[in-house]
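lol ok so funny story. i was supposed to be doing the assay writeup but got distracted and ended up predicting the structure for this chain instead. priorities right. anyway since i did it might as well share w the group, maybe its usefull for someone
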Amino acid sequence: MANEPKILIADDELDFVVALQMTLEGSGYRVATACNRPQAQEMIRAERPDALILGTLMPRGEAFRLHQWLKQSSKFKDLPILVLDAPLEKRTLKGWLMDEIRLLEADDLVAKPVEPASLVERMEKLLARARHRIKVLVADDHTVVREGICAMLALQRDMEVVGQAIDGRDAVEKARLLSPDVVVMDIVMPKMNGLEATGQICKECPWIKVLVLTQYEEDENVLTSAREGARGFIPKRAAASELVAGIRSVFDGEYFMVPSATKALVERARGRSQN
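and the output, tada:
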């Protein structure tokens, strides 16, 4: 159940919210609710929902303020949003203003009255469109290598490079700021090495997956990166397809290691068993 998408409903019509919550939960979603803008903002920070159903909030304009707060946030600007406008007879009282509609950056827009069951399919489609965009931060002090990786990842339809870091300290700061899904981390970098940066990121932001990418394949690096919390290890000489596969694997919660790194660990384990 913990892997099911979480939906936040922000709407001040209690009866509608209860009916929609029951419908979504009956379809397998986890659901949280908020009846005003401050509560919704706090729940977005704490719960990190997969999508937002943004309905009507009083006083008028509060829903749009929540929308603007999301779009101005580096962490939450890509949160999928399904907007529910007030029914025609209530639109002048609590609906979205025409100027707000023009500035709206929602993934879907529906006017009430609407049957909760009809929103399930809309939510499935909305999540499907957003589900496969993996946000990646690339950390490497060599500009040519870093930009080459970014250019290659830009060709992947399910990936988005959200930032670049030029050293370990920069990687930690940008991981905090950008909240990527995956960090591709070089080991040897100035100011703070990649292993130390990996440990700091994994400790402070445990939802971020780190994939170590380096030209140094010593088994000690593999072991240290794993101890620091890295979810995978890839040598720079590996094929681009292996890097892409590694990013997808760690994003899905798996561990990823190319055969050469696995072989180093196996040989080390055998050496210990023989001593």
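The mean pLDDT is 86. The domain at 6-130 is CATH 3.40.50.2300 (Rossmann fold).
back to the writeup now i swear
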